[in-house]
């Protein structure tokens, strides 16, 4: 009887050891599969650690590199610079006009697409058995979420968490230097088509919120249309409304607008006498924001973007 009991116990121990060594979904083993729910609520199974990644927005490049990912293809853009580690990656068209055939030729084992921009390519890519995840990358919280998601895909969760912790640390270091008083802000976005206002969900708006600035159009619900459809991070602009709200600080981003000799956007409203009556203008608190940090998502450079805005308002407290 004792021998039978010992035999059964031995069998159970072997079974437990085998089950304990079996990779589970979402674990960090190189041979395990992970299931990702992307920002379009699609469940995507990544069967192995990707070795050939294509990113459809340059904003994802540094996130992939931070967890040792290998980028073999990238979309082009006229904004910002390509990091050295990605310069040899093949170009797969412009961010707004992707060359799907080129992607297929690269035989990637993962494509990272930008939410609201690349959904029309999903069917073709997936029909070629290419896994695609769609990530949103607008706000700072989006960056942290995307970093953790890519870290999970690469089975580098711990490394991704350290990156996120360092981002928080850097931003908190900037915010801690600022005065406690709240200031109002207006963020103008200029293009060749006209001017709109940016809400807290825009890149600049998100940075301003972290700097405790009160956005004067945050409650605005009137929609703004653009080339890609409705733009929920924008609000309509009118000089009359701006005069009424009278912001203490004005930041300006620009895409395709005419520039002056110093490279700043030429704004007709600045020649209007009423412009000079706004508090921000009278107190020389009007600042132009650089394209590489505020047109495309700055990704892991978010602390730099926050620091840039803070340094413009409080140069004695914060250095760029």
Automatic annotation (TrEMBL):
Signal peptide (UniProt feature, chain positions): 1-26
Q: Which residues form the Fe/B12 periplasmic-binding domain?
A: 52-317
Question: Which InterPro entries does the UniProt record give?
Answer: ABC_Transporter_SBP (IPR050902), ABC_transptr_periplasmic_BD (IPR002491)
**Similarity field:** Belongs to the bacterial solute-binding protein 8 family.
Q: Which domain of life is it from?
A: Bacteria
Instruction: Give start-end ranges for the coiled-coil region(s).
Output: none
User: What protein name does the entry list?
Assistant: Fe/B12 periplasmic-binding domain-containing protein
List the keywords (alphabetical).
Signal
Gene3D superfamilies the record matches = Nitrogenase molybdenum iron protein domain
One GO biological process this protein is involved in is:
cellular response to iron ion
The beginning of the lineage is: Bacteria, Bacillati, Bacillota, Negativicutes, Acidaminococcales
């Amino acid at each position: 009887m004792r021998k039978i009991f010992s035999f059964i116990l031995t069998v159970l121990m072997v079974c437990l050891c085998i089950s304990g060594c079996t990779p589970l979904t979402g674990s960090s083993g190189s041979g395990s599969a992970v299931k990702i729910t992307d920002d379009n609520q699609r469940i995507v199974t990544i069967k192995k650690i990707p070795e050939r990644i294509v990113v459809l927005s340059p904003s994802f490049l540094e996130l992939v590199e931070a967890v040792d990912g290998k980028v073999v293809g990238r979309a082009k853009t006229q904004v910002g610079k390509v990091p050295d580690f990605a310069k040899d990656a093949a170009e797969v068209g412009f961010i707004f006009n992707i060359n799907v055939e080129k992607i297929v030729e690269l035989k990637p084992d993962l494509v990272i697409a930008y939410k609201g921009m690349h959904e029309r390519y999903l069917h073709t890519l997936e029909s070629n058995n290419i896994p695609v995840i769609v990530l949103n990358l607008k706000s700072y919280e989006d960056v942290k979420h995307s970093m953790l998601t890519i870290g999970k895909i690469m089975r580098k969760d711990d490394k991704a968490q350290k990156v996120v912790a360092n981002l928080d640390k850097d931003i908190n270091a900037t915010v801690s230097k600022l005065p406690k008083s709240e200031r109002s802000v207006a963020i103008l976005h200029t293009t060749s088509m006209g001017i709109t206002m940016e809400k807290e969900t825009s890149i600049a708006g998100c940075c301003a919120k972290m700097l405790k600035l009160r956005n004067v159009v945050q409650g605005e619900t009137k929609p703004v249309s653009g080339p890609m459809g409705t733009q929920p991070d924008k609000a309509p602009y009118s000089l009359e409304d701006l005069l009424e709200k009278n912001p203490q600080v004005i930041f300006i981003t620009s895409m395709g607008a005419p520039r002056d000799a110093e490279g700043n956007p030429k704004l007709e409203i600045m020649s209007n006498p009423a412009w000079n009556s706004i508090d921000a203008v009278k107190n020389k608190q009007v600042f132009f924001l650089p394209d590489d940090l505020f047109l495309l998502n700055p990704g892991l450079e978010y602390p730099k973007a926050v620091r840039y805005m803070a340094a413009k308002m409080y140069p004695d407290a914060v250095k760029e």
